[in-house]
Amino acid sequence: LWKSESGGVKWEPIFDDQKAASIGDVTVDPSNPDIIWVGTGEGNPRNSQSAGFGIYKSIDGGKNWSFKGLGETRNIHRVLINPKNSDEVYVGAQGAAWGESEHRGVYKTTDGGNSWKKILYIDKKTGIGELIMDPKNPDKLIANMWEFRRWPWFFKSGGSSSGMHITFDGGKTWSKRTHEDGLPKGDVGRMGIAIAPSNSKLIYALIESKKNALYKSIDGGFKWKKVSDKNIGGRPFYYAEIYVDPVNENRIYNLHTYVTVSNDGGKTFESLMTAYGANGVHPDHHAFWGHPTNPNFIIEGNDGGLNISYDRGNTWRFVENLPVAQFYHINYDMDWPYNVYGGMQDNGSWRGPAYVWRAGGIRNSYWEELFFGDGFDVVPHPGNSRFGYAMSQQGNVGRYDLITGHTQLIKPVHPKGEYLRFNWNAAIAQDPFNDDAIYYGSQYVHYSSDQGNNWKIISPDLTTNDTTKQKQHESGGLTFDATGAENYTTILSIEPSPLDKNIIWVGTDDGNVQLTTDRGKTWQNLSNKIYGSPKGGWVPQIVASQFDPSSAVVVMNNYRQNDWAPYIFKTTNFGKSWKKLADEKDVWGYVLSYVQDPLEPNLQFIGTEYGLYVSVDGAKSWSKWTHGFPTVSTMDLKIHPREHDLIIGTFGRAAYILDDIRPLREIASSNQNLLNQKLYFFETPTAVLSINRQATGTRFEANAIFSGENRRRGAMLTFVFNSDSKKEKSSKNKEKVKMEVLNSNGQVIRTINHDVEAGINRVYWDLRRKGVRSPNTPKPIKTNTREPGGPTVLPGLYTIKLSHGKVIETRNVNVINDPRVGINNKNLVNLQPIYDRQMEITLSITSVMDRIREAKNVVSSVDKLLDLKNNKSHKELQKNGKVITDSLKSLEELIVNKKGLQGIVRSPNILSGKVGAINRYLYNNLSGPNQSHTYLLDYAEEET
Hints:
Methylamine Dehydrogenase, Chain H; five-stranded mixed sheet; 67 strands; mainly beta; 5 helices
């Protein structure tokens, strides 16, 4: 949930620490904008639907939230507030898509959410498709009760329980509209319903039936008439929303693959905006808002994000600073800086930098699309990141060339023409022992040793091959929807062992866990040995151990069969026996992902539907990670082997990186004992003397451009601090830890005092040795002022000493040159005497300036004392004082700019200007000393 107080220019997340992240509806109280209701759980139940947990209320504009119940409803599609009574709220609960449940229907509270009453309920398979309130009469509501059901292998929309229901008394009584009132005869499905704000007697309804069509009532919903069945959209389960212009009752907006608009009361529709090309707006539209009095101001949301129009939809502004990407998988390469890869729901496959050696943050423009369609896993070539493999739905997989943009389809074909079943999110894996070889999954495991040009099948059908669950071409119910999303009895995960090329683990969408130890010649189905696993469970990940070839962890989830428990199992004996790593007491939400640290086996991470969990004791206990990371569907986890970062792909909040998890590694290896030490200094990562460039595009980005948090330049220093002081936490005088940097000769070259807090602290050394104060800067009054930074240090090994009182901790940090550039270290070494000479000159000038300021202060103080005496004999002394002050001022103006000057002042002949010129010539110099350095230094020394 995001909030903008700038008309959509700048956005802030305001719901990150709640139980669930998926939002079904958000409603602002029309009589008090500080009151906000949020119903969680996605209201368009496709195969990738994310689950919510109940309804939440804020009374302070989203700063704080209260959970108001209805957690078992899973998906709340509508929240309506009585504009005349803030305590009266209606909730339209769609309910769980994956099974029958009594927790669905229309709920009502009259006490602000403290208690709820179910006021409309049909049966366990029928929930809300739409719920609207008459803008002129809050006691009148119209509900579409929708019978629907999703299975892992099939979807059905519509049935005899579906229908339209109207109440005129706030839900005390309801009446159902049928074909006798003009609605379609027979089974119906989902409906989109809208009342014209300017004429509440006029109601439109988009109705799924044997023939989907738009209907209209002109008497407030009693009688209905079919208007049109042309160009009205074809996927009601996924989009079924219509909206009426606030002042023109004949103008209707219809959201589906495209936004279409009618200006004749629904008789005809035409596209509102371009979907493709330079000015295109992303297709697949799900959300819409129109200003209640200004029809020109509309906002719409789609599979690609948010768009705003101020001219009734003629032109649109895409909101590019909302990071809401839905990643299925995440991956990385070994470039400098390294890149993150992943495929997004309906937004293709992408690559972008983990951090940048540029000014500012990580912009959207730094990301490159690799492959279009619904994006899934991306596998960069291990030996050359220019090339790699990316996927889209229906098992399509291509090889891409990052530089040219060329892509080539390499999807396997069965040698005898057999139909290959590929999951919506098919399995792909890199062979750890051959850079040019990959695995791919249908019902078989396919192997290519030549980058996908040719394939061979190395397994039998590893699924249950249940033919009763292979009727995806019939999926949809009243409206067919055979997109490949329900493809079943397929392979979901392939995991070759990194330790033994003969071992391959495979997981399927119908509950099988298969293992070969002879490179595919024979296979074992281990499913029956995983005690406590759900029958037919989804196996999205298997993670082979990097310590023991007989060990692996299997991630399962079973929410697609209405089982919301977490399932994750480990074997240490090739699947003969299994142990559960976490259950409902340990983590919240079904499990989606897992990773184990490659160096410290006790450090492990789990991603669930509701967040990230960490264990530092070998999975004996788990803690939710909340620092800087929201409650969100955590789909995939990777650990970068060189930089030891945790890379996280989320479904709804894009990608996150936890920089350098080595402190967690040490905590895990020490049995957490080091957390109790007064001061403990963790291992430091390599620090890079990166050459930073300006951001691409505009230098001045203002607020509307996304700028992801960038890794700070310098040496990252992480330590534990536990105070024995009795100072209050609110004290302004924070405790400090002294940081000293020592070179290879043991000389202290930099000293900084850092404010610290109890717990784990992270600070940075900017890779500079001690500098000197500028002559423009007066001598500080306080003695604990931060030491100025000087020249950048040379590459090499440095010692960092942290101290607090008598407690001292040291670590070494390795500083290296930018690995992208061939830098001659001899040039850098030869520059050091130049830097030293420049600082000596600066120090000399600054010392003179300090004495001038001290003398002026003395004269000024004496002058004030003489004024107090008011003695005529003192006037002569004051005149002499003015002479001295004028002389000091003249001298001062030879060094720094004259005070009180207006406008742009350039004074190249003053000493501080000459010293500044030296600095500019030395900045970023990689080629060593030159004539300019010598000349400038000589000029400055002559006048010092």
